[in-house]
Specification:
The structure holds two protein chains of two kinds. By secondary structure, chain A is α/β, with parallel strands linked by helices. In chain A, about 20% of the residues lie in helices and about 30% in strands. By secondary structure, chain B is α+β, with helices and mostly antiparallel strands. Chain B contains three helices and five strands; from the N terminus they run ββαβααββ. A five-stranded mixed β-sheet of chain B has the order 2-1-5-3-4. The chains are: A alpha/beta, B alpha+beta. The interface between A and B is medium-sized, with 26 and 20 residues.
Chain lengths: ~350, ~100
């Protein structure tokens, strides 16, 4: 790699508008900003666009999108991506925004958990209900083990090589990783609350076969407690009704799906409603900090409805003010896509 | 009027009024019992997990496969765990007793 190609993880990357959240509302904001000639960069904790629509209900039909009598969460995402495409949005997936601060030059700086630094005069928070994070087991004293011998996802296979591994959960992730890591580990025990699995039938059949072959164990029950010292696990205790069993183990992987939490947004000194939603005005959808806007499910104002269509409207209005901030020397011209050759050029249709 | 008894995550007991045809999740959310119901009641987000009093568990309609599947993803699942969005309120539930599960 030549020095010119090397991008330091801490290099500052500039754009017009930073959008936190790549759900439907963040994606449509790209379109509205793009019509005004503003570039956007979106950052999302998930590994793909669509937010809740793609993560929670990709296949379920949505019936209240104007002009689309029935559209699935995934199809809506795909169409919004297509609509935003002419404006070449820049995506940063699998990253969570940790810090948001104002710089001496008046612009905002955000730092992600991957160490990236982004700078822009305007920030749109389109974070829905917050960020998706792995659900943790509800047992005490997990902290010392986390990242050492207890994991909520597989970041590096090397963490499990030659280990005595316990995996909990009954979904696809639990089964897929069980089969995937089995050749690497010294021993493997899968724990689930019932003997039925939600995972794909071929994965379930493959797992049942390796259990029958004696290559791994299946235990019915739930996590009860962990045993170990200084974050090094030595055993995992499983409870099934009134019976407990201790399984010797030095690694534990739990797959309890994803939870949604407000996360670091709560620490950005923005006025909140009920500690969960960001207060905005209904003219610009600006927060208590000028230059920071909140659109979609994350915001609150009198009469707020958590509907995708409300978020579209909010993004369109916020984009107007974003233009005034990002282009203080230019005049904002109101135009329609049907008649403006300038807009049609930006849309790459003229 | 039919009522139900809820114990919050903080351990406080309350008696709330039911509304015919509402999802239990919606009733709990309306009374700010710490239930989010992010997906709106389609058993997709599992943010409305409750533990039903064992005396009541058998009197509720059986969970559908979709609900069981989603419960598989949760920690702190007990024999009487339910997603409250899958329980529709009716007079026959008068006296229902439940605890909001840890989030």
């Amino acid at each position: 790699m030549s020095p010119a190609e090397f991008v330091s993880p801490l290099a500052t990357q500039e754009t017009d508008v930073l959008i936190i959240g790549a759900g439907p509302v963040g994606l449509f904001a790209v379109f509205e900003l793009g019509l005004l000639g503003l570039k956007a960069r979106l950052i999302d904790t998930l590994d793909r666009p669509g937010g809740q629509c793609a993560e929670l209900y990709p296949e379920k039909p949505i019936y209240d999108i104007p002009g689309l009598p029935s559209v699935s969460g995934q199809e809506l995402t795909d169409r919004l991506m297509q609509q935003a495409a002419p404006f070449e949005p820049d995506f940063r997936f699998s990253q969570r925004v940790e810090h948001l601060s104002k710089r001496p030059d008046g612009r905002f700086q955000i730092v992600t958990d991957a160490g990236e630094v982004h700078v822009a005069p305007v920030v749109f928070i389109a974070a829905g209900a917050g960020s998706f994070t792995p659900r943790k087991p509800k047992i005490d004293g997990l902290a010392p083990y986390e990242g050492k011998s207890l994991f909520y996802a597989v970041r590096s296979r090397a963490d499990f090589e030659g280990r005595d591994l316990v995996i909990t959960g009954g979904g696809d992730s639990a089964l897929d990783w069980t089969l995937d890591l089995l050749p690497d580990v010294n021993s493997l025990t899968l724990v689930h609350r019932r003997d039925k699995f939600r995972a794909a039938p071929h994965s379930v059949a493959a797992m049942e076969q390796v259990v029958a072959d004696g290559r791994m164990n299946f235990v019915l029950g739930e996590l009860d407690s962990l045993t170990g010292e200084n974050g090094e696990l030595t055993a995992v205790t499983i409870r099934n009704k009134d019976e407990t069993t201790a399984i010797p183990a030095d690694r534990l992987l739990t797959f309890f799906g994803l939870n949604i939490e407000l996360g670091p947004i709560a620490e950005w000194s923005l006025d909140l409603e009920d500690g969960k939603q960001i207060r905005v005005d209904t003219e610009k959808f600006q927060t208590s900090t000028p230059g920071i806007f909140a659109i979609g499910d994350i915001n609150w104002y009198p009469g707020k409805l958590k509907l995708i269509l409300s978020g579209f409207h909010e993004g369109a209005l916020a984009a107007q003010e974003a233009f005034r901030i990002a282009r203080p020397d230019e005049k904002l011209r109101f135009q329609y896509t049907t008649s403006s050759s300038e807009l049609q050029k930006r849309l790459k249709v003229a | 009027m039919a009522h139900f008894h809820v114990t919050s995550r903080a351990g406080e007991a309350q008696t709330l009024e039911g509304v015919d045809g509402w999802r239990l999740m919606e009733l709990l959310r309306d009374h700010k019992m710490g239930i989010e119901g992010i997906c709106g009641g389609q058993a997709d987000c599992a943010s409305c997990h409750i533990h039903v009093d064992p005396a009541w568990a058998g009197r509720l309609p059986e969970p559908r496969e979709e609900e069981e599947d989603k419960l598989d993803e949760l920690p702190s699942v007990t024999e009487t765990s339910r997603l409250s969005c899958q329980i529709i309120w009716g007079e026959e539930l008068d006296g229902l007793t439940l605890t909001v599960a840890p989030d």
